[in-house]
Amino acid sequence: MRCKRVCLVINPRAGHNVAKITDLIAVFAAAGWKTDIALKAYPGQAMQLAARAARQNYDLIVAYGGDGTINKVVNGVINARGRSIVGVIPGGTANEWAVEIGLPLDPVHAALTLVNSDARTIDLGHIQVEGLTFPHSTQPGDQQLAPPKGKKVRKKQVKAADKGKPRFLLMAGLGTDAAVMPYISKTFKYQAGSRAFEVAAAKKLTELQPFPVEIRAIDDAGDATLLWRGEAWQVLVANARLYGSIVDIAPEAYLDDGNLDVCVLTVGNLFATIGQITSLLLRRKPDDETAEYFQAPHFSIRAPASIGMHLDGSLSKLGNYLSKADREALQQADDPSKVMVEYRFDVLPGALQVAIPRGYDDTLFKKSPGNEEAHAAPQEQKDTRTARHNDHFVEGQQEAPELIKALLEHGLKMTVIGVAPNPDKKDTCIIAGTLQNQKTGDAVPVAVPVDDTVVVTNRAGKRLSAAAVLELQEGTVVVIEGKKSRQGVIRATHIVI
Questions:
Q1: Can you list the domains of the chain with their CATH numbers?
Q2: Mean pLDDT of the chain
Q3: Comparing C-alpha atoms, which of 61, 84, 32, 28 is closest to residue 425?
Q4: What is the pTM of this model?
């Protein structure tokens, strides 16, 4: 993934994500990337920052935050009609996208993995509101009711660039989860992570009610076929598979198959409901007897206006999708639960380029990557490294004991955090780690690019190949001779392992 200019869009998350910025800049600088920082200051600004970066033709726009931040960055890039690649540093609560693609949750390890990634083209989901149906008005489908005076069916198509962030990367949800989200404390969410959702759900459990749903598939000619009608607790429209980072809610979903996957958690008797909860908790998948699955490029879903919705884990207000006249009419309705909304969900094939780790096993891809060797599975890469382990010594090359002694006494002592290859530069890797400030004792983040010009030895002075660096474990202390730049990059001449 060749990049020169990177824009890092940061959700500060009450300061939690700001602390690692210098670590990330050091890794990116060691890879040869020029990084600019865009710090979100208010809700919704991440989308604007990403759109501006896309218009400025940044090669890579990195969302540092949770899935909601990623969603806004994705929409910003698409709104600007940009061609930038979207990458991610996990910094949220659930971090579902990171879990889906095998990205480490630690920011420094994620940055190293991002360097060792490739751009892949994926689909996105898109949502719009087709219209509202008020009580006693003519309804789509079989039932025809006479509209009272002054009431009529409204079906006003909403433009794609609406305020409602209409595209989603992971999934959209109608029902239980969106009903619980407004009651989650942000402070508690930052402390407890995904447990905050469980606590809020337990408090609201007795208040939750199923709701009527109609689901139709729409073909390319625009004709609709009724797939399912009934009452549900939850409807999920998925582009990916995992729900809450652990539940495989859409086992047949792929990021590049040109389809969306719908999962409906239906209403059954008490035992069926208990069975569904047990299945979600223990089997990490819905119970087939009380779940319905559908797959198509286009869906129409009708549900009450009172039912909340989220996109990629962030609440999305219905009013953002409506015209002013429809918003006013909805506000004047006696009972919003009697007003039906017709949502239209469409797949956007090949809409976005995203950074996918080279070690990813391609579970979510139907199409194979262009470079098969670059995308070897993690175990294959590990096996290759193991095979090289005994080949780290360079025959016949030995450094003078005096030089090694001087390096050990006066060199920079770096504690390793992680190592990754830099595929843009042949036979090059990057070590990320920290130095200790001798005056304060603070850990100073640094990164070291290692190529064939760097002399690497063990403490006995035996020359090691650059491949030996890839075997370094977190917590190992290495000694480095070199100069540190303001970005935290050490240009090393010697490394003693």
A1: 5-116 (3.40.50.10330), 125-350 (2.60.200.40), 381-496 (2.40.50)
A2: 84
A3: 32
A4: 0.86
